[in-house]
Amino acid sequence: MYGKEFEESLKAVAAARDANIAYEPARMTAKEKEDLLAAYHPDYKKSEFRELRVGANKGEALPHELCDMLEAKSRIKAEDIDLDHPTYDVDVLIIGGGGAGSSAAIEADNAGAKVMIVTKLRIGDANTMMAEGGIQAADKPNDSPAIHFLDAYGGGHFAAKRDLLAKLVTSAPDAILWLNKLGVEFDKAPDGTMITTHGGGTSRKRMHAAKDYSGAEIMRTLRDEVLNRGIPVIEFTSAIELILDENGKAAGAVLMNMETKEIMVARAKTVIIATGGAGRMHYQGFPTSNHYGATADGLVLGYRVGAKLLYADTLQYHPTGAAYPQQIFGALVTEKVRSLGAKLVNRDGKVFMHPLETRDVAAASIIRECSDHAEGVDTGDGLAVWLDTPMIEKIGGEGTIEKRIPAMMRMFASFGIDIRKEPILVYPTLHYQNGGLDINVDGETTNVKNLFVAGEAVGGIHGRNRLMGNSLLDIIVFGRSAGKNAAAKAKETEVGKLTLSHIAKFDAERDAAGIETNLVSPKLLPDYARKFN
Ligand code: MEZ
User: Fold this and answer.
1) Cα–Cα distance between 60 and 74 in angstroms, integer?
2) 53 assigned to active site
3) N or C: less crowded end of the chain, CB within 10 Å?
4) Is residue 208's pLDDT more than 70?
5) Do 259 and 127 share a domain, yes or no?
C-alpha cells in the first residue's frame, strides 16, 4: 500500500531496529530545549498570535482564533431572555458532561446539593473519553507526591500555580483509590498491585492505565455512577451565556437546545464550568486528537462575565498524532507506545531524540525533523516521522502490543497496518489546552464569586506544558473538589435578582476598542459542523 519512498524508508527503519533498541539517546540540556522550542514549537510562532483588545486579559497576545471568540458577540440579546421564570432552579449547575463535570456532580450529590449537568452533546462525549495512556499517581514505595510535584513543575517550565499543583499530586493516590472503588478496571499484576509505567518527563513509573483506553474506562465508570444516582443530565443543550445576580455572583446560565434552538434559563446558587478543551479550534491549522465538542466554550463564557484567563497562549501539541492513513489524520497515538519502548526515527531510520522527553520538546523535535532538516517521510499530506512500534514486541515479548495497547493495534489494523510488524507515521496533533480560567485552590475563579471551574478549562495547574497522565488526574482531583466546594458554597448563598447586564458592558467595551465583528460565541461546534438551517 505504500509508495517506493515509503518502502525504502521502511527497509532502513527495519535494518536499524536492533541497534536502535540498544541505543540510549542523550537527554537534551535545558539550553538545547529552550532553543529548540523557540525555533520550532507552535506556541512560539508570533505571527499566529494577536493582542486581545477587551476584558480582563486585555493586552495579552493569544492565538488569533481564540481572540476572535473572546471578542465576539453574545448569541443572545439580554432583553429577549425571561430571567424571572427559570426552566430549571438548582443548587449547583454543572456545564459539561465529561470527566470533570461528572466527578463534580457525584461529589455535589454526596454533599446533598440539588445538582444538574447540562451538556451540548451527550454525557461522556468529551476529551476524557479520548484519553488513552493513563493517569499519574505517586503511590509506589519508590515514589512520592513530592517527586511527582518536581517532575510536573519542571515539565511545566516552573510556571504552575504551586498550590494547585501541590493539591493535584497530593490528592492523586486517593483519586486512584476512588476510581478503583467506583469500578475502574485498572491494569493489575496477578497479585493485585497496579501496573505502572513511565511517561514523558516522569522520573518514576507512576502511570496507571486501563490498557490504552484509560479515559474511556474512567468515563464509562463516572457516567454509570452519575446515571445510577439519578442526577439530572440535560443533553444536547449548551450553555450560551452565564447569568450573574445583582451582587455580581454567578447565578446560572442561559441554555440553548442544540436541535430546536429553544432558549431556557437555569438558575443556580453556584456554577461549575467543566467544558473541556479547544482542539476543534484547530489553532494554526493543526489537526486534533480532541473530541468534536472541544471549542473553548468555557473560556468564552467565563471571560465575558469577567473571569481572568491564565496561560491561554499555550497549547499542547501531542507529539504523536497519526499522520497516515489520511482517514485517521491527527488521531491520538498514545504516549504509552513510547513508554513501552517504541522510539521515534526519521526517514533514514535514525533515532533523533530521547523517546521520553516532555511533550513540547518531543513535538518540536519532530517538527524540526520535518522542516529544515527535511528528514521526514512524505505521506502525501506532508512530512512525518516513524514511530517504530515493532520494537515493543522485541523488548516486551510477543503479544505485548495486543495486551497493552490493543486499541492502537485495532485502529491501524482496520487500515491494513499491523503495528506489531511495521512502524507507523506520526506528526504532532493539537491535544490539550494548557491554559484556561484562573482559579484558586478551592476551584473558584479568582475574580467571579460562585463561579467554579474544573478540568481542561482551568489554567495554571500544569504551568506551560502538561505531562502525560496529569490531565485524567486533574479532572478527578479538581472535579471532585469543585463539586464539594460548590455544594458547600451553595448552602450559604442567597441568589439575588438575575441579570445579563454584563453583555451590554462587554459590548460597550468592544465598541470603545473600535472592534467590528459579526462573529458570535461560544463557538459550540467546529466550523465544519453540518448546518441544519
Ligand atoms: O494525558 C494525556 O494526554 C494522555 C494520557 C495521552 C496519551 O498519550 O495517551
Assistant:
1) 22
2) no
3) C
4) yes
5) yes
Rounded Cα distance, 276 and 270, in Å:
19
- Alpha-carbon distance of 525 to 42, in angstroms, equals 23
270 and 493 Cβ atoms separated by less than 8 Å? yes
Which residue CA neighbors atom 3 of ligand 1 most closely?
Answer: 468
Most ligand 1 atoms within 8 A of CB, residue of 127, 128, 132, 456 to mutate: 132
Structural contact between residues 300 and 95, judged by C-beta atoms closer than 8 angstroms:
no
Tell the residue nearest (CA) to atom 2 of ligand 1. Answer: 468
Strand partners, 271: 93, 451
- Rounded distance from Cα 391 to ligand 1 centre (Å): 20
Angle (nearest 5°) at CA 129 between 128 and 134: 70
Please give the Cα distance from 183 to 161 (Å, whole number): 32
Compute the average pLDDT of residues 471-482. 98
Same domain flag for 417 and 379:
yes
Query: Which whole number is the average pLDDT over 450-478?
Result: 98
338 in catalytic set: yes
Average pLDDT over residues 48-62: 98
Total-model pTM: 0.97
Q: What is the CB neighbour count within 10 angstroms for residue 508?
A: 11
Dist. CA 171–CA 287, nearest whole Å: 33
pLDDT, tens digit, 9 for 90 and up, residues 139-172: 999 999 999 999 999 999 999 999 999 999 999 9
Whether ligand 1 lies within 6 angstroms of the CB of 469 is answered as yes
Report how many domains make up the chain: 2
Residue 514 binned pLDDT confidence (cut-offs 50, 70, 90): very high
Which of these three, 414, 430, 446, is where a domain ends? 430
Q: What is the CATH number of the domain that holds 217?
A: 3.50.50.60
Q: Which residues pair with 238 in a beta bridge?
A: 256
54 exposure class (CB count in 10 Å sphere: 0-12, 13-18, 19+)? buried
pLDDT at residue 533 in the model? 42
Residue-number span of the structural domain to which 336 is assigned = 4-40+317-430
In which band, very low, low, confident or very high, does the pLDDT at 531 lie, cut at 50, 70 and 90?
low
Residues 225 and 294 in one domain: yes
